[in-house]
Design goal:
Blueprint: H1 7-16, E1 20-24, H2 28-36, E2 41-44, H3 48-51, H4 63-77, E3 84-88, H5 98-110, E4 116-118, H6 126-134, E5 139-144, H7 150-153, H8 163-179, E6 183-187, H9 191-200, E7 205-208, E8 216-219, H10 221-224, H11 242-258
Parallel strand pairs: 1-2, 1-8, 2-3, 3-4, 4-5, 5-6, 6-7, 7-8
Helix pairs in contact: 2-4, 5-6, 8-9
Length: 269
């Protein structure tokens, strides 16, 4: 049985200078494959709303849906799996206050079997982070481009470009650390700022569109595999074109069914 990655493991990896590898997972099949690929952290992201459900943002995703997907991922990883599983708290599951946040985070751990939760935001959510941590729930923070605030931010734009915004982001990171967060995702911010934040805190930073100097990196698995060719942000590197392979396989199947080539005697009882 592999030794499970924990929040303490991730902190130790930062201290040793080891890179943390995180990918999103939304179902049991992907969770099993990613765990076998020795991925350190599986993020059950509310990005499921966009890449699986077909929404244009993460905002419609519900608590029930996150519990469902988290439970599926944990089952796929299995009891003998290595990866740490962190689950996003969806829009309006924590913004209304610490009591509601505690109830919903508790659901993700009790019903979804998550091992930690992720919240978006800085100073405004510090009391909520502290409440969850004090109640025994590990919390990962998320700064920079926070998708649940996309309308407030004016779209999917790089954050922290001005001196004031950069100072605020560094301050928010320190406040999240002081509140007990065990890690922080830094999304779509200048690489120099991400390096500055990483050096300013003792907890791991995990970047997406934030340069190479964070303590780790995260990508959406569907994007990494090339399942959506229309999504082409600057930070994304495609490691495969699985979407093309899927279409080619389905077209071959279609042709063989129509021509009665499949199923042949080889595939019949």
């Amino acid at each position: 049985m592999k030794k499970r990655v924990t929040t303490a493991t991730l902190r130790a990896m930062k201290e040793r200078g080891e890179r943390i590898v995180m990918l999103t997972a939304y179902d049991a099949t992907f969770a099993r494959l990613l765990d076998q690929a020795d991925i350190d952290v599986l993020l059950v992201g509310d990005s499921v709303g966009m890449v699986v459900q077909g929404h244009t943002s993460t905002l419609p995703v519900t608590m029930d849906e996150m519990v469902y997907h988290c439970r599926s991922v944990v089952r796929g990883r299995g009891e003998a799996g290595r990866a740490h599983v962190v689950c996003d708290m969806p829009f309006m599951s924590y913004q209304a206050g610490s009591d509601e946040a505690l109830r919903n985070a508790g659901r993700l751990l009790k019903e979804g079997a998550a091992e930690s939760v992720k919240l978006e935001g800085g100073e405004a959510i510090v009391p909520i982070v502290r409440r969850l941590v004090d109640s025994g729930i590990p919390v990962m923070g998320h700064l920079g481009l926070t998708p649940q605030s996309v309308h407030q931010l004016g779209g999917w734009r790089v954050q922290g470009k001005s001196a004031d915004d950069a100072r605020r982001l560094v301050r928010d990171a320190k406040m999240l650390e002081e509140a007990g967060a065990y890690s922080i995702v830094l999304e779509t911010i200048p690489a120099e700022l991400a390096a500055r934040v990483t050096d300013s805190v003792g907890i791991p930073t995990i970047g997406i569109g934030a340069g190479v100097d964070t303590d780790g990196q995260v990508l959406v698995i569907y994007d990494l595999l090339g399942l959506n060719p229309d999504f082409t942000p600057k930070f994304l590197k495609r490691y495969a074109n699985v979407g093309e392979d899927i279409m080619a396989a389905c077209e071959t199947y279609r042709n063989e069914v129509r021509s009665r080539e499949f199923p042949s005697k080889e595939y019949s009882y």
